[in-house]
Amino acid sequence: MSNTTDLTGDRGFQDIRESMYTVVFFLCAAVSVITTAGIIVALILPTITFLGEVPMSEFFLGTQFSPAIQPTVFGVLPLAFGTLLITFGAAMVAIPIGTLTALYLSEYASESRRAVLKPLLEILAGVPTVVYGYFALVYVTPLLDAIPGLELGTFNALSASLVMGIMIIPMVSSISEDSMNAVPDSVRNAAYGLGATKYDVSVGVVVPSALSGIASSFILALSRAIGETMIVVVAAGQTARFPETTSGLLNSFFVSTQTMTSAMVQLGTSDLAGGTTAYRALFAIGLTLFVMTLVLNLVSDAIAARFREDYD
Amino acid sequence: MATDTTTESGFGTVSRTKGIVFEYLTLASSVAGILALSVLLGYVFWDAFGMESAEIAWYGAFALLVVVPVLAFVAYTQRNPVAGEAALELFSTTMGGILGGLGTVTILEVVTGADIWFGYFVTVVAPLCALYLYGRSQPNASWVGLAMLGFLVLGPPIGTALLPITTTIVALIGGPFVYLFTLTIPGALVLRYVVEDYLELGDGDLTAGVMVAVALLAVPLVDRLPLVSRSVWAIFLTTLFAPLAVVVWKNLADRERRAGFAGPGVFAAGIGVLLVVTDRTALNGPTPWFDWQYVTTSPSRFADQAGLYPAIIGSVGIIVLVALITMLLGVGAAVFLEEYAPDSGLGGAVARFIRINISNLAGVPSVVYGLLGLAVFVNLANLGVGTVITAAFTLSLLILPIVIISAREAIRAVPDSLRQASYGMGATRWQTIRNVVLPRAIPGILTGTILALGRAIGETAPLIMIGVATTAFSPPEGIFSKTSAMPMQIFAWSSFPSQEFQHGVVAAGVVTLLVVLLTMNSIAILLRNKFEQEEL
Q: Is B141 among the domain residues?
């Protein structure tokens, strides 16, 4: 190397440039934190005003929701009931099918079948939700209505929750399958060595070992179902109901139902100018929904982290 | 635990049936959802193409002329995957070119107009590209990056100040010439590079010359066509015809890939023959709702006149903006988290917080993002109820977490040895990112971004919350103009009780949306395949 080479490492304005890029990239990453802060502030401020106008007890314990007709009543319970009803229906479809799918993919499927099935399953989650809603309204409801003895309304919770169940199958199956794949083969081989059959190994060894991942996938799927909007808006109708009797509970699946998300759409399409109680109720319901899904997501993370079986 | 179940039923007896039944139960579950969706998709395509009005004989002709040849080609690609890949390449270049052309026409003709585009092209786009190319050829010129940043910051105001002058120039030379200079000629330069250096197909100069010559020589022909203006021709030549020509050339040059033409070939020929047969004989064909009239006209109360055109243009405009915003912010954030963020100390804690925050944001319901958009972009920033820009910002925030997560994965997949080698040569961190990390991560980043954009184009709930119109009778005229979007129009029509709408117009809208999604996903798959091949 010649003597004239500058070995001091002084790069002049290159150093300034480098630190400038650091700042630019940090700002890009900071946008996500600003988004979170924005969501929280945007939801909390109108909610505080709202709770000044409508007492907290009326909002959380009221069994009536009628924002349009005077006198307006804002009880969130019927909406929460509708959300739980449809989430329950979706879970009844997605949890068994998703878990069995995960077992098939991780224990039984050949490599080539896995390569075909996995992207196909992902398609289920990729179809726009408004399209699913249309399917439920136009194709699934008439199909179910054709079953003798089933009296369905044009809008009903049953077809919305069935279709939503199909949509969240891949959420259950992909996370469950990941945790089943994480169970090391040595555990399986130990069971085979004791004379267990493939069925025993799958159900008796792999599922319990992967239980934390399976549970967290269930919770994530439920959280997705709670926040789902368009299927419910298009197919489940706009009637807020709170069943007073147990027979009413069973009947709720067959009639029009309103969920928290579809109530938000109803409020959002009627009034966006701001300044009314109905406008602020929109944000109060939004905050309730946000807190519910956030808690579920955090619980899911915590289960996955806390009860993870460590095989190292 | 596992042995318990077998000992209960008696020592040494193992039920084989139980195992087999269970295996088939799991298999049936795996395909249950897919089958259900296929049936629903079958219904919607059946409705959209008005198949119920066709005769049995027509189905026979359809199966014989279209289904059998296409299935035969698919079976053939199982043995010769290269041909399948070539066919996928042809398909996604054609569809992607149409979408890209639509997007460019929307942005340049409908939203900005040739004059404004020319102004900013001269002051921002052209200098940036020239500096970038200069920087590539002269790696030692460290002022290039700063100069680029300068143009990025100062260019827009200068462009705005010079608008009266540039507008006068545009008025003198005319819109089509603007596109010739700003799109066709730069496009020809890119073509020259792709043909000569990247694909090594042949003489790049000649190809570029041919492209410009075609652009000019076709003008008399274009003038005679209704619907197609000279500007639209210049745009589509650059986004669709030139890339398609190169892809055709590339696949024709390769003996093995040549077989890929059979796929699109038999499909087009089958449809063509079927149309002729239906036309010449008394055969009753289907009466499709999803046709040229549907995608080029405005919505209507009458089902047979209803169209999706304003909503398509609205969606395309929104998605182009979302793509720009999320690419810049998403890649920036991913680069920070993967390349800059320290592992420990205060910086490490900040980075960890940002990571957790991003994964939680990905789980926030989309309707809540709509509330954020309503509160911040509509009511606080006053960007207007249901405008293109409000919708684009809201959807950008919605898919940003997904884009960041996939961009991080793509950046993480770049081997560390490459970074170490770059640092060992004395490169700075930014030089390493620009020259080593990003070029290798770009295909992965693009794949993830396109898939996320597919999610954005189908989102409806946030658009309802920010007041995007369910029905618009004309396309948006600028980014601050009110707009509709495809999913919004589908949502609006699905509440019409008439059979013609529910089983016709809406089905056609769903098919349009799914075709757009299919195109985007096939481009993403193509990019991923290419990326994985280069990794090997």
A: yes
For residues A292 and A232, membership in a common domain is answered with: yes
Residues of B in contact with A96 (CB under 8 A): 29
Q: Which residues of B touch A224 (CB under 8 A)?
A: 363
Kindly state whether residue A26 falls inside one of the protein's structural domains. yes
Q: Average of pLDDT values for B373-396?
A: 90
Chain A contacts of B487, Cβ < 8 Å? 128, 130, 230
Nearest CA distance, A263 vs chain B (angstrom):
11
Cβ-nearest to B467 among A13, A130, A272: A272
Is pLDDT of B174 > 80?
no
Q: Select the highest-mean-pLDDT range: A168-177, B17-26, B193-202, B422-431.
A: A168-177
Query: For residue B306, what pLDDT is reported?
Result: 82
Contacts of A46 in chain B (CB under 8 A): 375
Q: What pLDDT sits at residue A1?
A: 43
pLDDT in tens, B456-505: 999 999 999 998 888 888 888 777 888 889 999 999 888 888 888 888 88
Same domain, B108 and B233: yes
Q: Are residues B196 and B116 in the same domain?
A: yes
Is B435 at the interface with chain A, CB within 8 A?
no
Q: Per DSSP, what are the bridge partners of residue A66?
A: A73
The pLDDT of residue B177 is 80
> Hey, what are B62's tokens?
């359809």
Q: What's chain A's average pLDDT?
A: 87
pTM of the model: 0.84
Q: Are residues B222 and B356 in the same domain?
A: no
Q: What is the CATH classification number for the domain harbouring A217?
A: 1.10.3720.10
Chain B closest-CA separation from residue A215 CA (Å): 17
User: Are residues A17 and B430, on separate chains, in Cβ contact within 8 Å?
Assistant: yes
SS3 of A191-226 = HHHCCCCHHHHHHHHHHHHCHHHHHHHHHHHHHHHH
Cβ–Cβ below 8 Å for B328 and A286: no
Q: Whole domain around residue A116: which residue ranges?
A: 65-306
Q: Are B317 and B472 in contact (CB under 8 A)?
A: no
Q: What is the pLDDT of residues B102-161, one digit of tens each?
A: 878 877 776 677 778 888 888 888 888 888 888 777 766 667 777 877 887 788 888 888
Q: Which residue from B minimizes the CA distance to A291?
A: B364
B327/B392 Cα distance (integer angstroms): 13
B44, two tokens: 């919607």
In this predicted model, which residue has the larger pLDDT, B536 or B284?
A: B284
The residue range of the domain holding B373 is 303-535
Instruction: Name every chain B residue with its beta carbon within 8 A of the beta carbon of A222.
Output: none
Q: A235 is written with which tokens?
A: 């197919």
Domain annotation covers residue A311 = no
Phi, psi of A110 (to 5 degrees): -75, 165
Which chain A residue lies closest to B426 (C-alpha atoms)?
A: A9
Q: What is the pLDDT of residue B16?
A: 80
What region, left, alpha or beta, does residue B50 occupy, with left being phi > 0 and alpha being psi -120 to 50 degrees? Answer: left
Structural domain count of chain B = 2
For residues B183 and B263, state if they share a domain.
yes
For the cut 60, the answer to whether the pLDDT of residue B346 exceeds it is yes
Q: What whole-number distance in Å separates Cα of residue B285 and Cα of residue B55?
A: 7
Note the pLDDT of residue B155: 80
The answer to whether residues A199 and A142 belong to one domain is yes
Is residue B462 assigned to a domain?
A: yes
Strand, coil or helix: B325: helix
Locate the chain B residue with the closest alpha carbon to A203. Answer: B2
Kindly state whether residue B89 falls inside one of the protein's structural domains. yes
Q: Give the CATH number for residue B342.
A: 1.10.3720.10
Is residue A42 domain-shared with residue A117, that is, in the same domain? no
Residues B219 and B332 in one domain: no
Is the domain of B276 the same as that of B312?
no
Task: Pick the closest to residue A134 from B522, B398, B458 (CA basis).
Answer: B458
Distances (CA, A) of B325 to B166, B322, B328: 27, 5, 6
Q: B3: pLDDT confidence band, cut at 50, 70 and 90?
A: very low
Residue B49 lies in a domain: no
Size of the A and B interface in Cβ pairs below 8 Å: 272
Report ipTM (2 d.p.): 0.90
- List the single best residue of B11, B20, B40 to mutate versus A (max A Cβ within 10 A): B40
Please report residues of B whose CB lies closer than 8 A to that of A128. 457-460, 487, 513, 517
